[in-house]
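hiii so um. not sure if this is the right channel but i have a protein structure encoded as tokens and i wanna go backwards to a sequence. like what aa goes where. can anyone help
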């Protein structure tokens, strides 16, 4: 009788979902990147061995990069660069030559266009800002939450793509925090906070000390050029959208947050 073949296959293919961090870079100078990363995350690894794809779309026609040094800079903060996307064809070719393949950019569905958002304040010329955020949802279906525990200075921006943002230090004037979900700030908010960036109208902004320049939910925003009203200045505040009832299209509500 023929014997059954009990040998295990040497190669098996299974589809899995892994979290990947998209890192938007506006410079590929290793020293400038190291300075920007240090300002955002300090001197300790911020990530835990996460895979990362470098978004090159904001680099223009830059054609040269010291990829090994760029990789080492991000490795210091716990990121393993696995590829690139966007940018010039020549730049993608130099990345591929050192083992960093190009990935297709993710396009939004035409049915759910992104709302127009106020422009972010430009970073200082000598300090490019590297913005990192989770881009995938885990197999459990739970949206990722991005935690920031260092103060954000003027010109710095943090974007929690696909989930909520929790900030444990001050968001200073000229800094900007953005999330597709809600934003929780357990510190002074003196800069800008934009929640529901992909159109989530149920997103909220909550902070323990409100002195904001601008707040926004799902593209509807309010500025405080003349200063925050005295009833809310320096106090716990909640920002949300009122319900759209047809007669009332809904509006942005900034109200004291009851902590009792």
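sure thing!! here u go:
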């Amino acid at each position: 009788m023929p014997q059954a073949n009990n040998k295990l296959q040497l190669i098996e293919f299974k589809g899995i979902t892994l979290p990947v961090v998209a890192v938007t870079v506006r410079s590929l100078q290793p020293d400038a990147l190291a300075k920007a990363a240090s300002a955002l995350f300090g001197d300790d690894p911020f990530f835990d061995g996460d895979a990362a794809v470098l978004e090159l779309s904001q680099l223009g026609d830059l054609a040269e990069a010291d990829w090994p040094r760029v990789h080492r800079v991000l490795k210091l903060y716990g990121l393993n660069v696995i590829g690139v996307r966007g940018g010039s064809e020549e730049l993608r070719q130099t990345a591929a030559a050192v083992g960093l393949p190009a990935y297709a950019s993710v396009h939004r569905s035409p049915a759910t266009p992104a709302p127009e958002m106020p422009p972010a304040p430009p970073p200082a010329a000598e300090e490019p800002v590297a913005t990192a955020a989770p881009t995938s949802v885990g197999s459990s279906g739970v949206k990722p939450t991005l935690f920031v525990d260092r103060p954000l200075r003027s010109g710095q921006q943090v974007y929690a793509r696909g989930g909520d943002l929790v900030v444990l230090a001050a968001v200073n004037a000229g800094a900007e925090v953005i999330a597709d979900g809600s934003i929780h700030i357990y510190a002074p908010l003196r800069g800008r906070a934009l929640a529901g960036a992909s159109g989530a109208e149920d997103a909220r902004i909550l902070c323990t000390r409100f002195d904001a320049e601008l707040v926004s939910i799902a593209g509807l925003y309010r500025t405080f050029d003349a200063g925050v009203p005295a009833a809310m200045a320096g106090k716990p505040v909640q920002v949300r959208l009122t319900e759209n009832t047809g007669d009332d299209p809904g509006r942005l509500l900034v109200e004291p947050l009851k902590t009792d």
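oh and The helical segments are 30-41, 67-75, 89-97.
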